Amino acid sequence: MSDASAMIECTDVTKSFPNAYGLVAWLRHGGATPRRIALEDVSLRIRPRQLFGLLGPNGAGKTTMLKLIATLSLPDRGHIVVKGIDTAVDPDAVKTQVGLCTSEERSFYFRLTARENMEFFGALAGLGGAFLAKRINEVIAIVDLQDALDRRFDTFSSGMRVRLALARALLADPTILLLDEPTRGVDPIHADAVRRLLREELVGRQGKTVVLTTNILEEAWSVCDRVAILSQGKVVAEGAPAELSTQIGGRVRYAITFDRLSQDLIERVRALNGVLQADAGGTHAETLTVELVAGGRTLTELLRTIGANGTTVLGMRPLDDGLLELFRLTTQGKLR
Amino acid sequence: MSAMTTTMGRAGPRHSNLRKALAIFVRDARLALSYPMSFWLSWISIAGQVLAFYFMSKLIGPSKTFGFEGHESSYFDYVIVNLAFVQFQTVAIQSFQRAIRSDQMLGTLEAVLATPTSLPLIVLSSGLWAFALTAVEVAVYLGIASTLGLSLVHTNLATAAVFLLLTVACMSPVGVLSAASIMTFKQLGPTNWVANGLAMLLGGVLFPVSKLPVLLQGVSWMLPITHALNGIRGAVNGATVTQLAPDAVWMVVCAVVLLPISLFAFAAAVRRAKLDGTLGHY
Question: What is the DSSP letter of B1?
């Protein structure tokens, strides 16, 4: 039964690829082409105005999922419905709703300039004339490539190529954006700009639906409304980032650096309610790594204790190990 | 906003398709001109080929077998018109498979197929630049030959245009079938040299079909290129389409049968590639 409130609805999608080619492989497998399962019975509901993250280790099936939604691939079983349109029934109608940003660098014509590439893909998207010229300038400004617009694509760096791919996805102003690792190879400043663009402008203001694949856990946690973790072609966890974090026991870890770290302070911290672990060391000799129960007053009590000790805090930062642990546990099937 | 455009600067379907076809033409022109050495050398080779046949024809005297309907003609006139016209067969067969192969190798095929553009439009438009360039090349070819004695003063341009269109319509499906083969097997097939070999041997490009054994003449009659060359030689000698009706009818039959088959085969090849996940492979 189709969910009318879903922008993208994937139901029991299974996708496999040939694992070996040629007559010998065919004969060895009794007259059938051996196949490798890339996605197995995957069901997802992505709502309008949602920034949905697909996470998973390499080969988990993230890009395959995007290509299925973009109609570049067909499922073995199951259905994918985009804005009420079955991708198997009317792929051309689906393509008018979707902007795809691939992570492959070779998706442009190397001997054409960025502008010439954008003119070509804009025309294939059905745009033209002065409007297309104006739109190219707009999307190129969004990804900060104005100065490179008339340069040949083969002179672009990896990060610039990814940003141009993002600009191409935005060109026809689609309702849905499918972004395959849109910050891969992009420098930190532009990567941050891309994340803010997604969160604040495209989803926040323009109300687009975005499906994002990424290997960067913090990226998914900081921008996504909802995340699905894929492992070996299956969804092993799905939910809002905060919900998923609580599944590892609601633990948070901080690294606190002092001007002088005493054993007495470590013992006082360990004695606090809600402190699960406190150990000296880490990147700096005067650094204390603490693991706390998330929420409650534990962090406040910890800071008060440190203050009462008369020690100066030089720095404090949250550690991402919690996310990494979550990722490890879910992809290993130890957490559902 | 223009009456032909709708929201977001999108055109209506018909206008949009023309725009897309033009965009593919412009892309191919830009890519071709980005290799200036290759582009200009091809013009030099045209002049070289005309000169080679000019000197070769001095070894062969004029004959009625070279002329249309028993009129005496020189070998130079005979072979130059045939070779010029067979270029259209070559480009019809090669252009589609080359375009698909090029997009596979460049990695742009998935990006193109991700756009809301129909498969027939993508495939058929990918030959536009090659056809336009070939038309200009053939004009130059014939122009150079005219300075060396080729007579085109009696040419019936309408007949020539009809047979040109029919040649493209007949041979393009072979090219699209070849493109479907590339989509599936990821390598260039033997279509081009088989077609050119058949044209040279059986189609009457280098020598008249009447010189072949009777059995091979029967095979020759089946080939569209035989009728195309007969048509264009007739056009050069001032024949009307009515006079060449049997040739034209056979070519229409070939086009009507082959075009839908080839487009169906290409769509099936793309579907197969989508199922196997090999759309972007090469």
Answer: -
CATH number assigned to the domain with residue range A247-331, chosen from the 4 options 1.25.40.10, 2.30.30.40, 3.40.190.10, 3.30.70.1340: 3.30.70.1340
Contacts of B274 in chain A (CB under 8 A): 71-74
CATH 3.40.50.1260 assigned to A8-245: no
Residue among A23, A64, A67, A73 with most chain B CBs within 10 A, to mutate:
A73
Task: With H, G, I as helix, E, B as strand and everything else as coil, classify residue B279.
Answer: coil
Which candidate in A72, A124, A166 is best for mutational testing of the B interface (most B CBs within 10 A)?
Answer: A124
Question: Inter-chain contact B111–A96, Cβ cutoff 8 Å?
Answer: no
Mutate to test the interface with A, among B2, B4, B7, B8 (most CBs of A within 10 A): B8
Per-residue model confidence as pLDDT tens digits over A43-102: 999 999 999 999 988 888 999 999 999 999 999 999 999 999 999 999 999 999 999 998
Residue ranges, CATH 3.30.70.1340, chain A: 247-331
pLDDT digits (tens, 9 = 90+) for A257-301: 888 888 889 999 999 888 888 888 765 678 898 888 766 678 888
Chain A interface residues (partner B, CB cutoff 8 A):
15, 17-18, 38, 64, 67, 70-74, 76, 92-93, 95-96, 98, 100, 102, 104-112, 116, 119-121, 123-129, 131-132, 135, 168, 172-173
Question: For the purposes of burial, counting CB atoms within 10 Å of the CB of B237, is it exposed (0-12), middle (13-18) or buried (19 or more)?
Answer: buried
Report d(CA A208, CA A205) in Å as an integer.
Answer: 8
The yes/no answer to whether this complex scores an ipTM above 0.95 is no
Q: In this complex, which of B31, B116, B276 lies closest to A125 when CB atoms are compared?
A: B116
- Alpha-carbon distance A93 to B118, whole Å? 11
Helix (H, G, I), strand (E, B) or coil at B114: coil
To the nearest whole angstrom, how far is the Cα of B189 from the nearest Cα of chain A?
Answer: 17
pTM: 0.82
Contact residues for B92 (Cβ-Cβ < 8 A; gap 6+): B127, B131, B167, B168, B170, B171, B172, B174, B175
Please name the amino acid found at residue B240. T
Q: Show residues of chain B in contact with A111, CB under 8 Å.
A: 30-31, 34-35
Pairing state of beta strands A8-18 and A77-82? antiparallel
Q: Which residues, including other chains, have CB under 8 Å from residue A298's CB and lie 6 or more apart?
A: A272, A273, A274, A275, A292
User: What are the structure tokens assigned to B260, written together?
Assistant: 């839908």
CATH 3.40.50.300 in chain A is located at 8-245
